[in-house]
């Protein structure tokens, strides 16, 4: 409901498909990550935040791009993603790594995240990738549905964290590990659904823009905004293993998209890497315990 309403608003305003994907749809599908991260801070389980962000970024690239490339028989972009958008994605991954090396985020670093997110939004708005406005008029109902869906997602986040804490306690596994796998997969499902729907409509720009925008928003928006609600706990195993893995996967994504296309076999490769990532979590869990 949230994504559909946001997309209709963007189309009615004449925003191009890639911009819709990289901003409106991407931020909308990242709302579960933001909601669950804020809820985890209030629930004194702030270590879930970093696991959710890192796990979601990995899942978005490996699982979503992989599945979309396989289902769509490949991905082809008519937009040069390597000009600005990919460098912005790569810089967000490296900035997260550098700022978290000391195990915490200070207010200056949080401010840097917020400024970086603002720069990304301004760039997206100022780029002349605008279409003629859609014939459908901008309706008040779009905003009402947007608000209603946002409220539902916000309250649902509390129950997600409640369930996650219970599962972690029952299985005697650190919450951050579950957030890297199960929670990250759950909060990334909106991105998967939207990207598959875009591929079905032969709109590859929205499918890829959704992943790029979501990962940038996860790093700057989710991590940055969540830090304003309390101090985040950063487990050492995530600093030493998961974040470097995320950075490496983001760099790999850059190489894959260098020619503005992803073949079907590259989709299978990404999917295999995602399965390896899930397997690696079984090694991390005993290390934490």
- Structural class by secondary-structure content: mainly alpha
Number of domains: 1
Mean pLDDT metric: 80
Helix content: over 70%
Order of helices and strands: HHHHEHHHHHHEH
Poorly predicted ranges = 130-135
Number of contiguous helices? 11
Tell me what portion of residues adopts beta-strand conformation.
under 5%
In the CATH classification, which architecture applies? Up-down Bundle
Largest sheet: 2 strands, antiparallel
Radius of gyration, rounded? Answer: 18 Å
CATH H level: which superfamily?
NCX, central ion-binding region
Q: According to CATH, what is the topology?
A: A middle domain of Talin 1
User: What is the β-strand count?
Assistant: 2
Distance between the termini: 40 Å
CATH class term: Mainly Alpha
Overall 3D form: globular
User: How do the strands of the widest beta sheet line up side by side?
Assistant: 1-2
Give the SSE map.
Elements: H1 2-12, H2 17-29, H3 31-42, H4 47-71, E1 75-76, H5 85-100, H6 107-126, H7 140-171, H8 175-200, H9 204-227, H10 236-256, E2 261-262, H11 264-288
Antiparallel strand pairs: 1-2
Question: Can you describe this structure?
Answer:
The protein is mainly α. The chain has a single domain, classed as NCX, central ion-binding region (A middle domain of Talin 1). The chain contains eleven helices and two strands. The chain has helices at residues 2-12, 17-29, 31-42, 47-71, 85-100, 107-126, 140-171, 175-200, 204-227, 236-256, 264-288; strands at 75-76, 261-262. Strands 1-2 form a two-stranded antiparallel ribbon. α1 (2-12) runs antiparallel to α7, α4 packs parallel to α8 (175-200) and α6 (107-126) runs antiparallel to α9. The longest helix is centred in the middle third of the chain and has 32 residues, at 140-171. The termini are far apart. Mean pLDDT is 80; it is low at 130-135.
């Amino acid at each position: 409901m949230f994504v559909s309403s946001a997309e209709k608003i963007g189309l009615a305003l004449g925003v191009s498909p890639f911009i819709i994907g990289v901003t409106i749809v991407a931020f909308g599908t990242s709302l579960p990550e933001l909601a669950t991260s804020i809820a985890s801070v209030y629930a004194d389980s702030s270590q879930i935040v970093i696991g959710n962000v890192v796990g979601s970024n990995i899942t978005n690239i490996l699982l979503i791009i992989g599945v979309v490339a396989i289902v769509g028989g490949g991905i082809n972009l008519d937009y040069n993603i390597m000009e600005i958008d990919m460098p912005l994605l790569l810089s967000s991954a490296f900035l997260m790594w550098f700022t978290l090396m000391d195990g915490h985020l200070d207010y200056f670093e949080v401010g840097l995240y917020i400024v970086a997110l603002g720069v990304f939004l301004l760039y997206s708005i100022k780029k002349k990738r605008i279409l003629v406005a859609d014939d459908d008029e901008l309706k008040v109902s779009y905003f009402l549905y947007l608000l209603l869906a946002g409220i539902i997602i916000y309250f649902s986040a509390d129950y997600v964290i409640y369930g996650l804490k219970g599962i972690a306690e029952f299985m005697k596994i650190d919450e951050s590990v579950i957030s890297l796998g199960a929670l990250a997969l759950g909060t990334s499902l909106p991105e998967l659904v939207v990207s598959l729907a875009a591929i079905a409509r032969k709109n590859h720009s929205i499918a890829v823009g959704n992943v790029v925008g979501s990962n940038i928003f996860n790093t700057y928006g989710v991590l940055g905004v969540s830090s304003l609600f309390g101090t985040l706990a950063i487990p050492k195993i995530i600093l030493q293993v998961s974040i470097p893995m995320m950075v490496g996967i983001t760099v790999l994504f850059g190489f894959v998209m260098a020619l503005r296309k992803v073949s079907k076999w590259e989709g299978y490769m990404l999917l295999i890497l995602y399965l390896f990532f899930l397997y690696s979590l079984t090694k991390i869990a005993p290390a934490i315990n």
